[in-house]
Amino acid sequence: MPEPNGVNGMNDMSGMNHKNANLLEVDGLKKYFPVKNGLFAAKRVQAVDGVSLSIAKGETLGLVGESGCGKSTLGRSILRLIEPTAGTVRFGGETVFGGSAAKSPNPNRFRRKMQIIFQDPSASLDPRMTVGEIVREALDIHNIGGGRKERAERVRELLSRVGLNTEHANRYPHEFSGGQQQRIGIARALAVDPSFIVCDEPISALDVSIQSQIVNMLEDMQKELGLTYLFIAHDLSVVKHISDRVAVMYLGKVVELSNADELHLHPLHPYTKTLISAAPIPDPRKSRANKRIILEGDLPSAIDPPSGCRFRTRCPIAKPSCAAAEPPLREVSPGHTVACSMI
Ligand SMILES: Nc1ncnc2c1ncn2[C@@H]1O[C@H](COP(=O)(O)OP(=O)(O)OP(=O)(O)O)[C@@H](O)[C@H]1O
Ligand SMILES: [Mg+2]
Question: What is the distance between the alpha carbons of residues 189 and 184, in angstroms, rounded to a whole number?
Answer without folding.
Answer: 9
